[in-house]
Design brief:
The chain has about 425 residues and is α/β, with parallel strands linked by helices. It contains 16 helices and ten strands. Bound molecules: NADP nicotinamide-adenine-dinucleotide phosphate.
Amino acid sequence: MTQNIINARVTFRNSPIHILEQFTIKDIDNAYEKFKKDSGLDECVIIQTCNRIELFGKSKSTEIEKIKKTWASLTGLEEESFNENVEFVENQEALHHLLKLTSGLDSMVLGEEQILGQIKKSITSAREIKASGQHLNTLFDKAIRMGTRIRNSSGIGKGGISVGSMAVKLAEENIDELKTKKILLIGTGEVSTLVAKSLQRRDYGFNVTSRTISRSQTFCETMGGEAVKFEDVLSGFDKYDVIFVATTAPYFLVTHERITTAMNGKNKGMMILDLSNPRTVDEKVATIGGVKLMNLDQIAEMVEKNMNARQNKVKIVENIINEEVSVLEASMKRLDAEPLVKDVFKNIDSLRIKELQKALSMLDEKDEKKIKIIEELTKAVVESIVSTPMNNIRKASEQGKPDVVELASKLFDYKQNQAD
Ligand SMILES: NC(=O)c1ccc[n+]([C@@H]2O[C@H](COP(=O)([O-])OP(=O)(O)OC[C@H]3O[C@@H](n4cnc5c(N)ncnc54)[C@H](OP(=O)(O)O)[C@@H]3O)[C@@H](O)[C@H]2O)c1
């Protein structure tokens, strides 16, 4: 590839969630501008979920130090922290990683569907603001299609365990007779839906709250549970034995003070499961007597166990990815020749039109039918002469022969930057 595809990432695999969240990029539009201006990337796409922050980029040369520097300036982190937490790969390995992402192989919950939706959202918004261009748009479109196909043919997502059911399982493992306990779910978004589904499947009763009671009521109509007022919950945590928290609140909803007050009037223990990232439960609550706090990191551990039990499927998917990655790579290499091919076709066509008009005016031809025939003739001649060499240039590019593309560029007097 004459163009480099790079991937720089911080994920739950290398970094615990509380470290990972420090790498979160808050202002994505500004980040796109900075990565392009300061890191030399021509195109970029940022994927951010609660388990990963990933940057895909396209450039002529890769300067990881510049990427780290820009990322550090966006987050206020020291550049050294990037050495420990950021993984960096390029070209075939970057394509391979994207396929692992779209097929769900790199997810905390093996084969989970949410990541595919998150990737689609990322490329759609990058495309809208023109942060991505021809290379990354093509790469992501293809990787999404391939990932979907791999999921369907391998059944990797089937029988998997969602973040929601995993959290419920953790509660079951840690609390005796969960059925007799008072359960609260804070949040009515995607993750809460997964928790609610799992609670309902196991026949547990639960209360649901979010900032607007009407939203909680609508949620309960489809997901079960009973809606309760947010204000009542915040001042009355003592009513609950198990609390699932899955919100995007940018501050602690479950504070040390609130739980201390709740535990004062309570003679039973309390388990709190914080599924949020960034966290919405102050970690200090774990120091209060009788309180057990669990977060996404612990869930990751459980998923790891779940992964071990499913290694066979992983092998199948890995094999498919290894085959598909060369197809993806060939498509990307083919793209390298496209600006040249487009330019040659454009130049030859304008010559054709110029010569055609000259000939028609010399003939002083007025008959539309004859003009059409002559015009079609010029197109056919051009097409039959140009298509074979152009297809050969594409093929050479696909087969990783940049010298052929370079030679053709010289022959057709094509300057690389003119179509970039
Ligand atoms: N999606 C995933 O794959 C995944 C996996 C694991 C963990 N997580 C983490 O789980 C959390 C929830 O994710 P999600 O996908 O469910 O998000 P979501 O669908 O966007 O839902 C967000 C929820 O947060 C509530 N909320 C937002 N701001 C709030 C505030 N200031 N105070 C109280 N509630 C607030 C919203 O309720 P109202 O606006 O109605 O109040 C809504 O119920 C996030 O921290 C995410 O990082 C996500």
